[in-house]
Design brief:
The structure holds 2 protein chains of 2 kinds. Chain A is of the alpha+beta class. Chain A contains 24 helices and 51 strands. In chain B, the strands form 2 sheets. Chain B has a 5-stranded antiparallel sheet. A 5-stranded antiparallel sheet of chain B has the order 3-4-5-2-6, with no helix packed on it.
């Protein structure tokens, strides 16, 4: 099993052999392997099928840029992750992984038939083919395409893992721990500030992990790395985060990073978070994210065994894995030679070296000769063969862009080196601008938008000496024994003798986009890379084109015969690599997914079978069903009990604002439409609040507690909005007023008692307040004590019955509720929820802001002109009330509706017409805003907004519904006790 | 009839939080508003020291006064002093323009202590809690995920967090998850 290992090479722990399973078969590996290196060590190159054509695929790279080798990682139920890059998956004893996108098996995949019918799937295929019939898209095409399309299955089980999140701060954040990152960290840790060094790999070191033969300050690279890490670990001000990917770089040096904590651990710890989302605010960001080697685009460049040269070097030096027994190199850049020399020096047979260029530097020629190798210059690869792995290639000599001769060469691995692409992803996230660097054939950072610098290969600086100098702020503290990084040419397109329509030279491996597709897009008129990208999907896969973008750009530029800069640049967006939803949520699940605010009495409601509904962030009891009751039955019972005897209701969620100061009344006068100056202490008034636009924004009962103190109530959902608006006016418009606002929503628990027996229940518990109707009339408020605790007792009613709202400090809410509930048994006290509250108020024609109003309803529309202080000089929204459109005829007005058939309960939101026989489209004159069954009236009732509705009182209108059209009589919106006599029951 | 209503802060802490998170007992809390120019005279008249800078705290016996705005103070004190303070404020009503509002039951207080206290807060609060930027004695309003909080550093490794009552169970649940995931701490 170790035939593909080199005993002399690698950092793997040979003392710790482990077993893992791939596609159901057990293999051996060592601790320190990635799944990719482990499979290669076992001679496995075929690991995946491609997205569109289901072509056999192997490993292109050894890093996070991998487009091909996507696998499903299975840790048991609820822990299955698909589309994991085998090159970044750390192996542990017992690891289980599967290949994806093949059926019935990786070697015999039915979907591969697509490869033979490629002519049916040109670029823009979906856009062209599935346009008609339109109705087929949802039911036929899309599901079929989704089923066919590649990548692993979405998980079906609930995620069994936990996730965490953490905010961190530092003065210096360094992303990437290659030689540049390490050198930068060594110099940053000398300064007083906090330093965080992050690397996506399990080990720090970046490219150094694959280049043990280098020396830095005469110390071998790995020893230097070890020494440097020891220094960094010893510093109090340094935090090292391995296995952590910076996924996004946002405003003001705020970066998101995901740390993988448990994926590499053999045993699952139920309590340990699998991943942690780090949200980091940094003073300075040093990007040392390196560069990614570029593939070369030639026919059948996607066969297993065809890989990036740098990958072969990593597999050999880091993992001790030999990727082939006869290895060929195809390069246009000097850096490819470093790899081939490492391989040759390890005793691996080299099949041939092909260089696109007609000349190679003397140093390289000499170094090649020393190893007994020769270079074929002006040579390109024009084809490859081999079913599941490359077995031979066609090496063609070119002269003046023409092929002069072709030779077949036997090999089992072909390395490509197309130059290097600086990883500018994060720099771009931060809105830094890029510039084109002709000699690299790549974009590099230009002007940063944040306090950031890019160093090393991600800045277009190559060659270890230059990198180390740049990382150390231009000082040359480091002497490096390094082969000259050299140079290369850009070789995005190659001549061919084959029919260009028939060859597949892959640009984007993951989305199966070929050179031909890009040329087709250009022929079809797409000139900008942004358009070519969307048409061909190049660069749009989960790897975001890490290995393909620059080739696609060069090919497009070539096709449109323009400089690359004029073809444009696609945008990099977070996340840098695919990220789990769990990590993005950062541990917000279950109770922490969303705040559910509960009242002090919520626990009692829960214990007593309440059905809840969400109202803003709160959950409120909607109704209290008894055995066998549905909502309607429960609500009917609750309504009757309240009207006949006594109902108890938790009104704690009502927004409350304490308005205090010598100018409190003046402030209220300006905020609300009603007059407040003359309201006496101890009295309440219904307050109506408008926006600047004159439309109803909020309402509530407001009590004047003292000359300089108001207890304001707002709607449940409107509380924050009202508070903010009040503060805005107070601070910016009227700073001269001596008044202050405090939110007291949660200071008070509020228990509403409604019904003819409300006073009788209350009386024995209250101290210091005379409940006698003469001294405590409707719309009054008193302070005193109830059951020994302080209370603000309001005599108000939202039901039309005799009503009290008892405010007590919140922590006593439940205890008081329980006392009242127990004592109320003699009156058959009935707890009711929001649904009954809605019915009772609708019977009285009281509006609910946000239900009967929609932000376009004026007080006049709602029939509430009475709430406007006629003598007031000003209040918020007053000026708008004279606007021509607000005073115009034809506005919708609030009315009541009584269906012809009393048993029909209208649908809320239903549209209203005057003439149901009008041809469609009919003129819609209004809509139903509230609609209920009224147990009290033994019939349905509804409220509606209808154009000039009040003039239609007592006439019939129609509500066309799917099954039938309802005839409805327009009425006043007050259905019950229009004289308000029930408020005064003794 | 005489009743003794039971106080219920609406949040229960899991056992595993022991030693790391404590729910503070009932406190007397006031939102106190007074213009900055009246601060010194007011302090002299009522004996309650008010910090003169936003973010500062003054502690006297059981009393903590946080300055959270140009004219805004949060006063936390022993609940037994309710009547005393009330009377004090009433006496000053004619002499000063100011506002007091009882928010004793609006807020819930958590005390977080131990080496991991700052880290526990940073699971949901974006503030930099290093001693340099958030020294002992500093207070400020902030957020903890979806909850608004008041945060105060008592000691190097002890913080007090105040939040509105209905947000307290949500925050407690976060602390619980943190402690579960960091068993070894």
């Amino acid at each position: 099993m170790t035939i593909n290992r080199k005993e002399t090479h690698g950092r793997i722990n040979r003392d710790k052999p482990i077993k893992f399973s791939f596609d159901g078969k057990i293999y051996s590996a060592f601790d320190g392997d990635s799944l990719a290196s482990a499979l290669l060590a076992n001679g496995i190159h075929l690991v995946a099928r491609s997205f569109k054509y289901h072509r056999p695929r192997g490993f292109l790279s050894a890093g996070s840029e991998e487009p091909n080798a996507l696998v499903t990682f299975d840790r048991g139920q609820g822990r299955v992750t698909s589309n994991v890059r085998a090159t970044t998956l750390e192996i542990f004893d017992g690891l289980v992984a599967y290949s994806q996108n093949n059926w019935p098996s990786l070697k015999f995949d039915i979907g591969a038939i697509n490869d033979f019918f490629y002519m049916l799937f040109p670029a823009g295929f979906y856009n062209k083919t599935f346009m008609w019939p339109k109705s087929f898209w949802d039911k036929v095409y899309e599901p079929a395409i989704r089923k066919m399309a590649g990548l692993g299955p979405a998980p079906i089980d609930e995620d069994a893992d936990k996730y965490a999140s953490l905010y961190s701060h530092c003065e210096t954040l360094i992303v990437g721990s290659g030689p540049a990152g390490i050198a930068a960290a060594l110099s940053a840790c000398e300064k007083p500030g906090r330093v965080i060094l992050i690397d996506e790999q399990n080990e720090f070191g970046g490219s150094l992990l694959s280049t043990p033969n280098l020396t830095i300050n005469a110390i071998p690279a790995w020893q230097w790395l070890k020494n440097s890490l020891a220094i960094l670990k010893g510093r109090q001000n340094v935090t090292l985060l391995a296995r952590t990917t910076v996924i996004g770089y946002y405003h003001d040096n705020f970066l998101g990073a995901v740390e993988r904590i448990t994926d590499h651990e053999k045993d699952i710890n139920q309590n340990k978070a699998r991943e942690c989302l780090h949200r980091i605010r940094a003073g300075e960001v040093i990007l040392a994210t390196g560069a990614i080697e570029r593939p070369l685009v030639f026919p059948n460049n996607d066969r297993p065994g065809v890989m990036l040269a740098s990958a072969a070097r990593s597999y050999l030096n880091r993992y001790g894995v030999v990727v082939g027994e006869k290895i060929a190199l195809f390069t246009c850049h000097d850096s490819g030679y470093e790899v081939i020399f490492d391989l040759a020096d390890a005793g691996i047979s080299i099949a041939c070296i092909m260089d696109v260029r007609d000349q190679v530097s003397d140093n390289i020629i000499a170094a090649t000769k020393t190893r007994g190798l020769e270079i074929r210059t002006s040579t390109i690869v024009t084809n490859t063969s081999g079913k599941f792995r490359i077995s031979s290639l066609h090496a063609s000599r070119i002269n003046d862009e023409k092929i002069t001769s072709t030779e077949e060469i036997i090999c089992d691995c072909l390395l490509m080196c197309g130059g290097w692409t600086p990883s500018v992803h994060l720099f771009s996230h931060s809105k830094g601008s890029l510039k084109w660097q002709e000699n690299l054939g790549a974009y590099i950072p230009d002007t940063p938008n944040e306090n950031t610098i890019s160093i090393g290969a991600c800045n277009g600086t190559f060659g270890l000496t230059d990198i180390m100098t740049e990382a150390d702020s231009g000082q040359s503290k480091y002497t490096v024994d390094d082969m000259d990084f050299g140079s290369g040419i850009i070789a995005a397109t190659f001549p061919t003798k084959s029919d260009p329509a028939k060859i597949k030279a892959f640009v984007d491996y993951q989305n199966d986009v070929t050179e031909k597709d890009i040329n087709l897009a250009v022929r079809e008129g797409l000139k900008s890379i942004e358009h070519v990208k969307r048409y061909t999907t190049t660069g749009m896969a989960t790897d975001q084109g890490k290995t393909s973008n620059l080739n696609a750009l060069q090919i497009t530029a070539h096709a449109v015969a323009k400089p690359v800069q004029q073809v444009g640049l696609t945008t990099f967006r977070p996340p840098f690599t695919p990220t789990t939803f769990g990590a993005l949520l950062g541990g917000k699940d279950g109770d922490t997914f969303h705040v559910t605010r509960k009242t002090p009495i919520d626990g009692w409601a829960d214990d007593n079978g309440a059905i809840f509904e969400p109202v803003a962030l709160w959950r409120r009891a909607r109704y209290f069903p008894r055995e066998g009751e549905d909502m309607l039955a429960a609500v009917n019972r609750e309504c009757r009990a309240t009207r006949e005897s006594l109902g108890i209701f938790d009104a704690s969620t009502l927004g409350k604002i304490e308005v205090v100061g010598p100018d409190a009344a003046e402030f209220m006068n300006r905020m609300y439409t009603n007059p407040w100056m003359m309201l006496k202490s101890g009295s309440c008034r219904y307050g109506l609040m408008l926006g600047e636009d004159g439309y109803i924004m909020d309402d509530g009962v407001i009590g004047r507690m003292a000359e300089d103190r108001f207890h304001v109530t707002t709607t449940t959902g409107g509380a924050p909005r009202v508070f903010r608006m009040m503060e805005d006016y107070r601070q910016t418009e009227w700073p001269e007023l001596d008044v202050w606002l405090t939110s007291t929503t949660e200071q008070w628990a509020v228990i509403a008692l409604n019904g003819p027996n409300a006073r009788k229940l209350l009386e024995p518990f209250v101290e210091g307040i005379d409940l006698n109707p003469e001294s405590f009339p409707h719309m009054a408020v008193r302070e005193g004590r109830i059951c020994g605790v302080e209370t603000r007792l309001f005599r108000v009613s939202f039901s039309g019955e005799l009503g009290f709202e008892i405010n007590v400090p919140a922590h006593y809410g439940r205890a008081l509720w329980e006392v009242l509930f127990k004592a109320g048994q003699q009156y058959d006290i009935t707890p009711y929820g929001t649904e009954t509250m809605h019915v009772l108020r609708a019977e009285k024609g009281f509006i609910i802001v946000g239900q009967d109003t929609d932000g376009t309803v004026s007080p006049m529309d709602a029939g509430m002109s009475w709430a406007i202080g006629k003598k007031k000089k000003d209040f918020v929204g007053k000026r708008s009330l004279n606007r021509s459109d607000i005073v115009a005829k034809g506005r919708k007005q609030l009315v009541g509706l009584l269906t012809d058939d009393p048993n029909i309960v209208l649908e809320e939101g239903a549209q209203i017409v005057a003439d149901p026989n009008q041809p469609i489209p009919m003129d819609m004159i209004g809509h139903v805003t509230s609609s209920y069954w009224s147990a009290t009236l033994n019939r349905s009732i509804a409220l509606a907004m209808i154009k000039d509705g009040r003039a239609l009182t007592d006439s019939d209108i129609y509500i066309p519904m799917a099954d039938q059209t309802h005839k409805v009589r327009v009425s006043t919106p007050i259905f019950y006790d229009p004289m308000g006599e029930r408020l005064n029951v003794l | 009839m005489s009743y003794k209503l039971k106080s219920d802060q609406g949040v229960i802490l899991a056992d595993l939080l022991a030693g790391q998170v404590t729910l503070m007992a009932d406190q007397l809390r006031y939102s106190l508003r007074i213009k900055s120019q009246d601060r010194t005279a007011f302090t002299k008249a009522c004996g309650i020291d008010l910090p003169n800078k936003i973010g500062q705290t003054i502690i006297q016996n059981d009393r903590m006064v946080f300055c959270v705005g140009p004219d805004e103070y949060i006063l936390i004190d022993n609940p037994n002093l309710r009547e005393t303070l009330k009377q004090k404020f009433e006496q000053l009503a004619d002499k000063f323009v100011f506002s007091t509002t009882d928010i004793s039951h609006r807020n819930i207080g958590f005390k977080l202590s131990g080496k991991q206290a700052a880290r526990m807060i940073n699971i949901g609060c974006p503030l930099d809690l290093s001693l340099e930027t958030f020294p002992v004695g500093k207070c400020t309003r902030s957020v903890f995920e979806s909850a608004e909080i008041l945060i105060f550093r008592n000691k190097e490794d002890e913080f007090q967090l105040e939040t509105w009552r209905s947000f307290a169970p949500y925050m407690a649940r976060y602390f619980e998850k943190f402690c579960l995931e960091n068993e070894s701490l």
